[in-house]
User: Fold TLCD2 protein from Cochlearius cochlearius.
Amino acid sequence: FSPGLLVVAGSFAAFRLLNRALERLVPPPPSARRNRWKWRNIWTSLAHSALPGAHSPSPRRFCLHPEMSEDLVGTHPPGAHSLVAVSVGYFLEDFVDMLCNQKLHQSWELLFHHSVVIVCFGIAVLLHQYVGFALVALLVEVNSVFLHLRQILLMANLVHTTCYRLNSVVNLGTYVVFRIATLAWMTRWLFLNRENVPMATYAVGTVGMAIMTPMNIILFYRLLRNDFFK
Assistant:
């Protein structure tokens, strides 16, 4: 038994309760009332992305703990393990929420994405290793803030507003820096450290990167096409 599993369970329950309370905290506009569960789901995802400590401390922690850049396997700052466990709880909650409320053909991409993240982060939580690597992966949450905000503006029928256009530009910029560049760095790290990582773990990481990279490139193309080329 790992204490991290208790954090995962607590995180799952907390995000589940938040999901239920959000319809009262942030009532859906008329344009989103036909899809109330989606409105709650996106706001829950935004809450995870914007959590104090969910993403902004990652660069700071790497500055305060420069040894992490050399050892992402056994080195991690205090609180990093709990942070990864909290994220596992969120991704589990989001997986269950989509599975219960959305048709499979509409959500299979995100379900597949969440499955990969849960497995990879779960290994870090259970083994207390590769937490630094998972912390690097959480840098993508910087972009997720603007990605979820874009969905909220779409559901609120605010596409033709300055706020949406500004968010589109920031979303695309942070996508390149915190998603594509981060995944490229993680892939490079795996390649350079293949002799220092057990074969099973290396295989999981390589498969994860091989899945995540094309998915993020496809999503980038969709964002570019829908927000700038149409």
Notes: The chain has one domain: 3-228.
